[in-house]
Specification:
By secondary structure, the chain is α/β, with parallel strands linked by helices. Helix 2 crosses helix 14 and helix 7 packs parallel to helix 8. The strands form 6 sheets. A 6-stranded mixed beta sheet has the order 12-17-16-15-13-14, sandwiched between helices. Strand 8 and strand 9 form a beta hairpin. The longest helix is centred in the first third of the chain and has 18 residues. It is globular, with a radius of gyration of 27 Å.
Length: 816
């Protein structure tokens, strides 16, 4: 059928489907409307299928069910894997060898080998089936210290360079193979339509054109071209296109939310990356947490079976996201026949795998899940395992640790940084002469972790130091290197306090790292209510210093005041570990001539107001900087004074910060009741801390109080209540930490040992898992007191910070 004919049929069918009485259409896909695609025939060649048929004929139903379940490395041991023989083990987020996010690369190799050996330990009956070891390598092999870190996808979208994407994927695959991993959860082919979404930076663009142009090259870079009768090359890994479908189209940008869209937009916008990935041979597809018009994708048979496997001819296997099956109506984390019957082949059951295995086995034996459906799932999984080479005892790249962060790999990353930078404003200050005296300021200047963003060593990307990136270079270090080569100098002063007045100041600032739902925001205004970075820019300008702003962010944000206060403004996105790529473009030669020009173009529209979400093609499209905008040295442009009216911005709902920078942020208040008093304290800054003193003359409770908020998503994300504290007088009686949700649904945990074990006068950090409180009965959907510390004895405690934080292997449930 010609494209025009297809369009006519599609429009006719949709007009019927969208007519009166079409409620069923809203949740059910019509396969004939979707584009055709096909996995290459080389994925299902006769030799592979014959091998699988023979192997499956020897497998028990217990072994087959086990193949359909994936556990997290933090929740299953090699010994348990010997018994259950699950199909896959994953690591990602905060799971790592020995619960150490900064474990050595050699330890990663040893750890992965231990799981592989457990799965392959002979026990007779038939050939042992290897596991697939999966990782979230989303901007390089970002889990492993020393690996090359590339810009996040939002920056790569600005580069508009499919060949660069292929080369990045090749480097990522090779460095994964070095550690022993077989499978990455990428490419991400989301089309983010609301910049408030916490995963916006994982998308290449708000328009499907860039996503569609990148999906194929990324797939081929990771896997190589599939060849009949042969497994992937030894420096390649299996990929997974994600997250099917419309994860970037949820209402209000809510992570794991609902895409309220008609089928036309589902196809036109959000499906664009899947046909090219399937045609290129992608071996797996990961399904989104989110839903379509009220139905979770993980349970939507019309999308998974009829469209993805049927119309689009996908012959690999379909895998779920982190316990996403538990969100399907009628399901739980440990039981979901509906998802299997909808077309899910492998369930990601990180910490629920054992219960899910038992229940799924019972459901198969009872006929609730047809045996034919399980056989289809297992065939698809084994097909990918054969193609990925897991049945071959041949891993020549594994353990070649010198390839992690190799110079050639870092060169590709540095090129990617150069090409991803977008110049929004330049009043003639750039490029800088390399002979200039340069002040480099801002909290992102010498912080590789901030430049790398989320999904960097830890899930949220927090807690990283420059020493965690042995092959990396901060933006400041790259600038210093560049100006030193030209006879200039660079002074680092985060707060802008210089020793000698500079010719120019480069201020590097922006968002702190986040991932997924923790990154969801209510408004695109940058630093609402706390314009500390703007104050720094204005302070430097007031001293007659030209200011170049390098803005780090995972999305376009309303920054009109910051742009007005800058002589040049560069959107650097989240560039990763090669800060020298920024200097390559900002710093010219001794005469001030460019060494490299700006080539990046916006792949997301830059907002004119903080209360509007705009995408190219919208009616009345009127952003501050349009999709495709980007100045260069060759083609400069004038940017006048911008409006500093953010629009009608609703108050930001702060659910995770309870005491920071010496204050209790709204909507929370701090309350001392009973035998406890609180006073201000200096701890490195003026009154940035508080000291709570319990007199012992009755019970005293120090609480953070507010209107009820829903922390259930934070609980499933394994977040924790974090307090940075100093014990000044050890507790004489038991101390409890509570979470309140009314008079009858709160919960307390005993934290006496935590504080009694602390050295007097020493600053420490404790993280108490939210799941501890939930296990004791707290209703996490109605938390009105996220922190309540009580004792009836004498006790003195200073603290500088109370907030929710990611469990990076350091959170715990207290015990007596």
């Amino acid at each position: 059928m010609t494209p025009k004919a297809f369009a006519r049929v599609s429009i006719l069918a949709l007009s019927v489907a969208c007519g009166p009485g079409s409620a069923a259409w809203a949740q059910t896909a019509h396969p004939a409307l979707w584009p055709k695609a096909a996995s290459p025939a080389t994925i299902t060649d006769a030799k592979i299928e014959a091998f699988i048929t023979k192997l499956m004929s020897q497998m028990s139903v217990e072994e087959k069910v086990a193949q359909t379940i994936q556990a997290d490395g933090a929740s299953i041991t090699p010994e348990e894997l010997k018994k259950y023989r699950l199909g896959s083990v994953l690591v990602g987020g905060n799971s790592a060898p020995d619960n150490n996010d900064r474990a050595s690369a050699q330890r990663w190799v040893e750890w992965i080998r231990s799981y592989r050996a457990a799965a392959l330990e002979p026990r007779g009956g038939h050939q042992e089936i290897p596991i697939l070891f999966g990782v979230d390598a989303v901007h390089g092999h970002n889990n492993v210290v020393g690996a090359t870190l590339f810009p996040h996808n939002i920056g790569l979208g600005a580069a508009r360079d499919p060949d660069l994407i292929r080369r990045i994927a090749e480097v990522t695959a090779l460095e994964m193979a070095v550690s022993g991993a077989d499978w990455t959860f990428g490419p991400t082919v989301a089309v983010p339509r609301d910049d408030r979404w916490g995963r916006a930076y994982e998308g290449y663009a708000e328009d499907p054109e860039v996503v569609a142009s990148y999906a194929g090259p990324m797939t081929l870079g990771l896997q190589g071209k599939l060849v009949a009768g042969k497994s992937l090359a030894k420096d390649r890994v299996a990929g997974s296109a994600k997250h099917f479908l419309a994860d970037g189209g949820t209402e209000n940008g809510k992570d794991q939310g609902d895409a309220k869209a008609d089928e036309r937009d589902l196809i036109r916008l959000h499906n664009a990356g899947y046909p090219p990935a399937i045609d290129a041979g992608i071996l797996s597809v990961m399904v989104s947490f989110s839903g379509w018009n009220g139905v979770k994708h993980t349970g939507n048979k019309s999308l998974l079976t009829d469209v993805l496997k049927g119309r689009m001819g996908f012959q690999g296997f379909v895998v779920g996201d982190w316990n996403a099956h538990g969100q399907v109506e009628g399901c739980s984390n440990t039981s979901c026949a509906q998802a299997y019957n909808a077309g899910m082949d492998m369930m990601m059951a990180p910490d629920s795998w054992k219960g899910l295995y038992d229940n799924t086995l019972a459901q198969v034996k009872a006929g609730q899940i047809p045996m034919a459906r399980i056989d289809d799932a297992v065939r698809r999984i084994l097909r990918v395992k054969v193609k990925a080479g897991t049945f071959e005892n041949n891993r020549p790249m594994e353990g070649k640790l010198e390839l992690l962060g190799a110079p050639a790999h870092r060169a590709v990353a540095r090129e990617a940084v150069r090409k991803s930078l977008v110049l929004l404003k330049n009043e003639g200050v750039l490029p800088l002469k390399s002979s200039a005296r340069v002040l480099v300021a801002g909290d992102g200047a010498d912080d590789i972790g901030k430049a790398a963003g989320g999904w960097t060593l830890t899930w949220q990307g927090t807690g990283n130091k420059n020493s965690d990136f042995p092959h990396g270079q901060s933006i400041y270090a790259g600038i210093a290197e560049a100006v030193k080569a030209g006879g200039g100098s660079a002074e680092l002063a985060v707060d802008g306090q210089f020793k000698a007045k500079p010719d120019v100041a480069i201020v590097v600032f922006g968002e702190n790292p986040y991932a997924e739902f923790q990154g969801d925001i209510a408004t695109t205004e940058y630093q609402p209510g706390d314009k500390s970075d703007l104050a720094l820019l204005k302070k430097l300008k007031a001293q007659g210093i030209a200011v170049v702003s390098v803005f780090l962010s995972g999305r376009p944000l309303w920054t009109n005041p910051e742009i007005n206060a800058s002589d040049a403004f560069v959107a650097a996105w989240l560039p990763g570990s090669e800060g020298g790529g920024v200097a390559d473009v900002l710093v010219g030669d001794v005469a001030g001539k460019p060494r490299n020009d700006f080539t990046g173009k916006l792949s997301f529209s830059w907002p004119k107001r903080a209360d509007r979400e705009e995408n190219v093609g919208d009616k009345a499209y009127d952003p501050q900087f349009v999709y495709g905008y980007g100045l260069s040295y060759a083609k400069p442009g004038k940017v006048g004074a911008l409006s500093e009216d953010p629009g009608t911005v609703s108050a930001v709902v702060n659910v995770d910060r309870y005491f920071v920078a010496g204050r209790t942020p709204e909507p929370w208040t701090m309350n001392a009741a009973g035998a406890v008093t609180v006073s201000a304290l200096d701890a490195g800054a003026q009154e940035n801390a508080r000291q709570a003193v319990w007199s012992g003359e009755g019970t005293g409770t120090l609480s953070v109080l507010g209107r009820p908020v829903d922390l259930s998503r934070q609980t499933t994300g394994d977040m924790a209540v974090m307090i940075r504290y100093r014990v000044d007088a050890s507790p004489g009686k038991p101390v409890s930490l509570g979470m309140g949700c009314g008079e009858s649904c709160g919960a307390q945990v005993d934290v006496t040992s935590t504080f009694q074990g602390a050295k007097i006068g020493e600053w420490r950090t404790a993280k108490i898992r939210l799941s501890c409180f939930m296990a004791k009965g707290a209703d996490m959907t109605q938390i009105s007191a996220p922190f309540a510390l009580s004792t009836s004895g004498r006790f003195s405690l200073a603290f500088t910070e109370i907030r929710l934080a990611s469990n990076e292997g350091d959170a715990f449930c207290p015990t007596h």
